[in-house]
Structures are given as structure tokens and as C-alpha cells.
Amino acid sequence: MATYKDIHGSKIQNVSSDPPTSVAGDLWYNSTSGDLKVNLGTPVVAWSTVNSLNQARTSTAGAGIATAAIVVGGYSSTYLADTEVWNGANWTEVNNLNTARSSLGSMGTYTAALAFGGNNGSNMGNTETWNGSNWTEVNDLNSPRRAMPGAGTNTAGLAIGGFLPPGTNIVESWNGSNWTEITDLNTPRYASAGAGTQTAALLIGGAGGTPKTELWNGSNWTEVNDLNTGREALMGSGVQTSALAYGGAAPAGVTEQWNGTNWTEGNDMNTGRLRAASAGATNTSALASGGVPAPGSPDNVALVEEWSVSGGVSTIDLS
Fold first, then answer.
1. CA angle 8, 14, 16 (to 5 degrees)
2. What are the boundaries of each domain within the chain?
3. Among 25, 139, 282, 292, which residue's Cβ finds the most Cβ atoms within 10 Å?
């Protein structure tokens, strides 16, 4: 059998840090991290279809990351309290919200989430916290509203904008016990997407197809570079310097990556949709769950897609 040296003319490199440049097929051992690594070629980031939700739904909410997520509430002929968790392969139904609703906000992880606001025939301020097993009612929003994103965790987060009516610029901060109104958005809006943390957040797009993006530094909102394609009822995930905006109304499958300064268009979703649940930690890893394929469509879907990277530098499992 030919060895690596026979094929490439040299032994595997032993280096203290990853080489700044490499080509497909290059292999090296990083002595600092103790990892064997390989360059698998030019990175490709794209959507792939994974296992569907148990309950088709729209106007739902999500939290977590692409391999460990939670989807909660929504609408499918009636307001839903259903909660499902994702382990990277399958969805499992777990304990319901105490109050069924759609168009709610959410943030956190699949074991420690917060669900707030929403619609159950009228605007709601209800807030519930998830401990990995059960939902518990806690203190309400100061301003009941729906169609607002969250950013942060279940003990430190933001509820941003929303629909009263009309769209509002109200922002509330959550400290694990209470909501407090803080500095308003520059532009009132709803049906936007959010990303980031309580002190470093991003608000993206919104009703009327606005492309506006606003950045939160813990004290003030600043308008930064717009989306390439403005849209409403889109999904967002990631952090303030590495975010993803995907789906939304017309065109429904557009995906854009944010690098902290600009938006760049990436590969479209396989099935464009809006009012779906989102989860994800960066602009290279996300989950889109449920939703509807077009504005006004009665066809709620259970479809789930994952945004992930193939190629690039990968660590070889030596276990």
C-alpha cells in the first residue's frame, strides 16, 4: 500500500499552528492542539433537508444551535403550545407551553429557553422559561405585542420591536426575572429577524420589505449596511459579527451572510419560506424549521433544513 510520503513526496507536516495557506489534499499535525487536519477543498456552505418536525406549523419560534434546537408554539388551524427538541438527527415532542400562541419571540438554548409575547386572538405579554423539561410562567412583557425577535439567553436577553399595532420601536431587556424598557430602535418595525446577545445584537429586515439593519452595542442602536434583498417574516441566527438572514417574504429562499460589516448573498434555501423557526450560532451553521412557502399560503409545513459547511479544513477523528 502506498504511504502518504509515496503519494505526496513528503511526510505529514508537524506544525505548531495551522498553515496560513493550504490546498486540497494537504495533511498536517497541529502539535499545539493535538489535532490531525486535512484540507478538503474550497468550503461550500449550503442548505440540506433533514428530518421534519412532528407538527407542521407556521409563525413558530426557535432557539439553540443547528445540532441542538427547540421549536415552540405556532399556528396550524389553531394556536399551538407544542414544543419539540432536536438532537441533530430527530425531533422529539416534549412538554407544551402553558399558553398556546403564534408569532411569539424566543431566545436561549434547547435546555434553557425563553418564549415571550405572541398572539392568541390578541397581543400577549406572557413570558415562559424552559429548563429542559418544563415551561414555567414568569413576569410578562411591559408592552404586549407579537412578531418580534429575541436576542440573548433565557436570563439575559432582548425583545426587539414588534406589532402593537402598528409596528413599534420598543425594546425591552430581560434580566432573568423582569423586563425593562430600554433605548428604542431608530425605525419602528415588526416581522424582523434578530441575532446576538443582550449587549451585542443585530436586528434585520422587517415588514414592508425593509432592508434595514440595526446594531445594538448595549446602549444604543445604530443603522449599519442594509440587506441586499429587503424582506419581512425572515429568520435570523448567529452573533453580531457573524450572522445569517434567510427566508422571508418574496423572494422566500434568499440567504445572506453577515461578516460584521456587510451582507453577502449565499446559496438559496431548497424550499423558500417565511414565518419559520430559526436556530444557529454563526453564519455557517443554522436550522430553519416549519413555516409557509408563500405569503397567505394555508400550507403550513413541517420541513426542516440545515445550513452547514462542507469542504475546507477539517479535523480528523483519531479516537
1. 140
2. 4-39, 46-309
3. 292
